[in-house]
């Protein structure tokens, strides 16, 4: 097919039923970009000889060097099969560090091509992309790629290859099946809950329990991949061939005189051809016959490879070419590389582009076929259910489903990411071919200039004068160059309804925008009062995305993928654009990777700081996953998803966004601090005997002297601390939380935030409406907490929770164990219906909570946040004179907000402001009542916050302290011969192997291990070097894990002295990490600078 003109594509954009938006998803190195090359070559954009070598959609230099895709890029293709189709193809990365780019691509599509390597089969990232496609409700089709490797590398027979391919299909279907089962079971659980509630309302009847899980009734046959259903293509993109069994069914139905519909059903499966009876029979496996698929399909391909690649049999090749009726150029027949001849034959016989594109057009939905379920999911942002949205908003569902391009239809566009484009690449700045008149005009100008120059040379003009004349032109050239190098941002978007036109006025709705706040009946043309998270702007320019190039458009109808220029001022990373202000913002994207790797960045020359700040801002906008923060220390920190991602971000900063030399620190590794229950055995696995106990008591007596005045620590770990003015005493105990509770708190951060917000509103005597679904989730969360906090010491603990921390929503708990003090519960939102007696809040209640927030934000070991610690306030005595109590209790709220404010993240900032404004109102009324002017920050409140913070820190130190390290799960595929080397690298880096299994039908092992983030830098490179590139790891952040060794451990028992020596100077991993963090933060580190100072160290004998 020749090159498609722009006019043709613009005409096709208007035919919504003939548009297909799809992305290519797969594990890294499974052949996505090569397949995309074959599809692009079918449109004549690149030469078919270069398909697979050029990697056209990898337009960045580092993508070409590393050989992996790092960003999703789109291209529009034209395909004809009876009807003409427009295919908007998005190629996405497979590397785990860039999985956020996959999320941005998946959101804009209606279908996906999932590519699986025929040798490696289903890999970790394949499962991730299938889950992403499932979560976005888009339909996948399957391409099993690299089948040539089964012939050339594994040297399988066609029969073995058939069994192998069946196994791969089973693996992919197993992943889909598990996703489907979990969905059905969730729905079933919801129905059960509803049925139960209705049962209880109707009174007690005979209860009949239905044991079926609901899986029997639901039809899931359309979810699975099977060649006879036409949603699987077998291909080798590098050799340019691919087929679905439809093609062979058509081919053989003419030859054998069997109906193609019969062949379709029997070509894949346990069928064989009975040559005598000329019938297709069942039971090939039991009778030891060749299955039809092997006999009619695979054998032909195997014999083609055998003749062309293995034996290079010229006569047989020529026979094959003539029997297939193909034309092969003589230079291909003479070529020294057999692969050239192979791809010349196969790309004509079974072109991969035709097989894939015809499958896409038949099996994937058009934008007009969007399901109502997907629309509701997109529109229900946050915890709001679709039916709780305002009425005008619900009416927009019809616009989505109609997908109409009428004048009256509201425009709805979703921008999934912003990407940076060089100004040279913009169509308006592109060099266009000159017309004959322009060429003649330029020739004339050149002649004139030449004549003037000669005249100038002849006149006696001094050199100095010439230099002066040259100066202004040099300056103007420089400014032009600077203008040229400016980065422009293009929004990567899709139109869901209406027609987006150049110069149109639209609303840009941020992710937190709420349509219910808006006055009725207003349009983008009106001058609106300022509404939070909404901006009004004019569409500057529209682009058709063509891989490395952009083409300018005037309008884009519904259902198309496009680029929008001039949006950098209004959109940070993603947004919803609409002409209707009642449009809700779309559900945020599901990012699989969490950014965990942090580095501090600074310019080489301090004077270039403003350029770095601007560059970081641009980088933050251009990368969907990178985060940019300025810490309290003033460092500029870049947070990325992994090593490769970090490298790409730093290169972008140097070369594109900041254009300055920068130096990056070593990665800042996050740790957490926690306490554990006292260990039962010592470091040499001996039971802790009396001898150890004596030693511990001896240690405690020594430590008692270290505590400052006013701090008492008893043997059970209860810390009692008095404020400097001796007016308040606080008793705090630290208790380790069970692991399940910590995990539960981490998973429910959003719920805890909602509860906190409700409490703040209640504090101001306001009410916050919470949707029923969230209340149910909070109730479930409470029940889970109660079930995990069992035992005598946790009795009633859930009801006594005072606060969560740090930042009011972290994985630590403050418990109220003060006798006789009943304060309002954090579960107030669940108790609205029940009229409970009003619990009184004691004076300075907030100061205690603030002290706890500060203590959990930076622990005593190395100022890292705490995790999994419960602080129980056991005593809290106040000795206050009446006027002082009244004065300070009025002010304590406004004081609370102050120390916290620096450390709050964005969402809790809003809470703080609410709290402080409320408290200032209260303080005003209180002051008037007292008839005196009050200092707005009571000194006593501050003392209590500090005392509470110190008490928490001492209570923490009174228990066995441990560091928690961030852990990656690491999946490595390796062959048997390099397995030993992989284990060596893992053990050297403190890794722990969880399981190792062999992949069926291959000699590959899959190793699952966990590895500390602190040890992961350079891990992938080292494994590749040690295994000569035969193994490559995939690292994904998984969880936090307690490091078992005690950073403050010293030998105390006899056995420990014998085993470790008196100095016990063998490396203590936890201490090493702790000191590294303290050194980075500029805290005191206890270490010997010089050991053996009397030894002379010379250069020649530097041992």
UniProtKB/TrEMBL annotation:
Gene3D superfamilies found in the cross-reference section: 3.30.230.10, 3.30.70.240, Elongation Factor G (Translational Gtpase), domain 3, P-loop containing nucleotide triphosphate hydrolases, Translation factors, Yeast translation eEF2 (G' domain)
InterPro entries: EFG_II, EFG_III/V, EFG_V-like, EFL1, EFTu-like_2, P-loop_NTPase, Ribosomal_Su5_D2-typ_SF, Ribsml_uS5_D2-typ_fold_subgr
Polar residues bias locations: 896-907
GO cellular component: cytosol; ribonucleoprotein complex
Keyword Nucleotide-binding attached: yes
Stretches for region Disordered: 441-460, 885-928
KW Protein biosynthesis (keyword) present: no
UniProt cross-references to Pfam families, sorted A to Z: EFG_C, EFG_III, EFL1, GTP_EFTU, GTP_EFTU_D2
One MF annotation (Gene Ontology) recorded for this entry: GTP binding
Domain of life: Eukaryota
Keywords on record: GTP-binding, Hydrolase, Nucleotide-binding, Ribosome biogenesis
Ranges of residues in domain Tr-type G: 17-368
GO BP term, example: cytosolic ribosome assembly
Biased composition (Low complexity): 914-928
PANTHER family per record: ELONGATION FACTOR-LIKE GTPASE 1, TRANSLATION ELONGATION FACTOR-RELATED
The protein, known as: Elongation factor-like 1
Annotated source species: Cyprinus carpio carpio
């Amino acid at each position: 097919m020749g090159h498609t003109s722009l006019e043709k594509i613009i005409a096709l954009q208007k035919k919504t039923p003939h548009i297909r938006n799809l992305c290519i998803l797969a594990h890294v190195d499974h052949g996505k970009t090569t397949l995309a090359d074959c599809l692009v070559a079918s449109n004549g954009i690149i030469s078919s000889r270069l398909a697979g070598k050029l990697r056209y959609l990898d337009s960045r230099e580092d993508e070409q060097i590393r050989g992996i895709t790092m960003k999703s890029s789109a291209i529009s293709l034209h395909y004809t099969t009876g009807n003409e189709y427009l295919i908007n193809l998005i190629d996405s990365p497979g590397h785990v560090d860039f999985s956020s780019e996959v999320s941005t691509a998946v959101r804009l599509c209606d279908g996906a091509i999932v590519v699986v390597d025929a040798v490696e089969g289903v890999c970790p990232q394949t499962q991730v992309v299938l889950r992403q496609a499932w979560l976005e409700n888009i339909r996948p089709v399957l391409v099993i790629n690299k089948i040539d490797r089964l012939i050339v590398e594994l040297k399988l027979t066609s029969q073995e290859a058939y069994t192998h391919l069946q196994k791969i299909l089973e693996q992919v279907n197993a992943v889909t099946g598990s996703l489907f089962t979990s969905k059905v079971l969730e729905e079933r659980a919801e129905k059960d809950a509803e049925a139960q509630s209705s049962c209880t309302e109707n009174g007690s009847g005979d209860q009949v329990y239905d044991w079926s899980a609901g899986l029997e009734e639901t039809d899931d046959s359309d979810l699975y991949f099977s060649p006879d259903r036409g949603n699987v293509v077998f291909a080798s993109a590098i050799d340019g061939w691919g087929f679905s069994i439809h093609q062979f069914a058509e081919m053989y139905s003419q030859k054998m005189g069997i109906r193609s519909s019969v062949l379709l059903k029997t070509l894949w499966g346990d069928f064989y051809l009975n040559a005598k009876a000329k019938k297709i029979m069942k039971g090939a496996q039991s009778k030891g016959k060749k299955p039809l698929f092997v006999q009619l399909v695979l054998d032909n391909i195997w014999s083609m490879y055998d003749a062309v690649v293995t034996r290079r049999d010229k006569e047989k090749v020529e026979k094959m070419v003539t029997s297939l009726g193909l034309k092969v150029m003589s230079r291909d027949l003479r070529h020294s590389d057999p692969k050239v001849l192979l791809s010349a034959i196969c790309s004509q016989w079974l072109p991969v582009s035709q097989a894939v594109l015809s499958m896409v057009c038949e099996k994937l939905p058009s934008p007009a076929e969007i399901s109502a379920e997907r629309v509701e999911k997109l529109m229900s942002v946050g915890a709001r259910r679709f039916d709780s949205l305002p009425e005008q908003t619900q009416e927009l569902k019809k616009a989505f489903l109609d997908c109409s391009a009428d004048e009256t239809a509201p425009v709805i566009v979703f921008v999934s990411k912003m990407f940076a484009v060089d100004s040279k690449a913009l169509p308006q700045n592109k060099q266009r071919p000159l017309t004959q008149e322009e060429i003649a005009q330029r020739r004339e100008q050149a002649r004139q200039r030449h004549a003037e120059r000669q005249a100038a040379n002849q006149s006696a003009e001094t050199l100095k004068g010439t230099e002066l004349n040259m100066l202004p032109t040099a300056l103007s050239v420089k400014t032009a160059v600077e203008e040229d190098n400016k980065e422009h941002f293009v929004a990567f978007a899709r139109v869901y309804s209406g027609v987006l036109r150049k110069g149109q006025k639209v609303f840009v709705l941020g992710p937190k925008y709420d349509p219910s706040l808006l006055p009725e009946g207003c349009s983008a043309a009106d001058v609106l009062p300022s509404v939070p998270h909404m901006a009004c702007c004019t569409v500057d320019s529209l682009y058709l995305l063509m891989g490395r190039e952009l083409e300018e458009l005037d309008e884009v109808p519904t259902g198309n993928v496009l680029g929008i220029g001039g949006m950098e001022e209004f959109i940070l990373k993603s947004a919803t654009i609409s002409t209707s202000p009642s449009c809700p913002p779309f559900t945020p994207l599901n990012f699989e990777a969490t950014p965990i790797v942090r580095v501090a960045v600074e310019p080489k020359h301090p004077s270039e700081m403003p350029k770095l700040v601007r560059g970081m801002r641009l980088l933050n906008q251009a990368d969907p996953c990178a985060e940019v923060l300025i810490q309290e220390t003033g460092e500029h920190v870049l947070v990325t998803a992994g090593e490769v991602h970090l490298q790409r971000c730093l290169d972008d900063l140097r070369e594109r966004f900041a254009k300055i030399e920068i130096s990056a620190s070593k990665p800042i590794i996050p740790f957490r601090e926690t306490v554990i229950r006292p260990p039962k055995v010592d470091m040499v696995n001996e039971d802790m005997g009396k001898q150890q106990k004596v030693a511990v008591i001896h240690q405690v007596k020594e430590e008692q002297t270290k505590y400052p005045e006013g701090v008492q620590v008893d043997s059970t770990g209860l810390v009692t601390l008095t404020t400097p003015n001796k007016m308040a005493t606080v008793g705090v105990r630290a208790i380790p939380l069970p692991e399940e509770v910590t995990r539960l708190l981490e998973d429910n951060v959003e719920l805890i935030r909602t509860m906190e917000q409700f409490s703040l509103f209640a504090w101001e005597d306001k009410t916050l409406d919470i949707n029923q679904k969230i209340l149910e989730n909070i109730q479930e969360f409470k029940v889970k907490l109660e079930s995990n906090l069992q035992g005598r010491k946790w009795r009633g603990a859930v009801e006594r929770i005072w606060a969560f921390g740090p930042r009011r929503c972290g994985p630590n708990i403050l418990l109220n164990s003060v006798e006789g003090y009943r304060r309002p519960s954090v579960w107030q939102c669940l108790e609205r219906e029940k009229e409970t007696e009003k619990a009184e809040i004691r004076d300075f209640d907030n100061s205690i909570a603030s002290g706890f927030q500060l203590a959990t934000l930076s622990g005593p070991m190395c100022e890292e946040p705490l995790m999994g610690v419960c602080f129980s306030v056991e005593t809290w005595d106040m000795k206050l004179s009446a006027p002082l109590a009244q004065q300070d209790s009025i002010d304590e709220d406004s004081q609370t907000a102050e120390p916290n404010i620096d450390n709050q993240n964005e969402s809790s900032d809003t809470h703080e402001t609410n709290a402080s404004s409320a408290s200032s109102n209260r303080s005003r009324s209180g002051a008037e009542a007292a008839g005196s002017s009050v200092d707005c920050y009571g000194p006593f409140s501050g003392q209590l916050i500090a005392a509470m913070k110190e008490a928490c820190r001492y209570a923490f130190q009174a228990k066995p302290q441990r560091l928690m390290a961030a852990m990656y799960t690491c999946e490595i595929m390796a062959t048997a011969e390099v397995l030993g080397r992989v284990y060596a690298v893992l053990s050297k880096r403190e890794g722990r192997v969880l399981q190792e299994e062999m992949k069926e039908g291959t000699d590959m092992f899959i190793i699952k291990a966990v590895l500390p983030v602190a040890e992961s830098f350079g891990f992938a490179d080292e494994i590749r070097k040690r295994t000569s590139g035969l193994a490559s790891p995939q690292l994904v952040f998984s969880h936090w894990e307690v490091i078992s060794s005690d950073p403050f451990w010293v030998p105390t028992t006899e056995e420990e002295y014998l085993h470790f020596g008196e100095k016990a100077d063998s490396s203590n991993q936890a201490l090493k990490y702790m000191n590294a963090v303290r050194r980075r933060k500029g805290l005191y580190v206890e270490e010997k600078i010089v050991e053996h100072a009397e030894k002379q160290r010379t250069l020649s004998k530097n041992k």
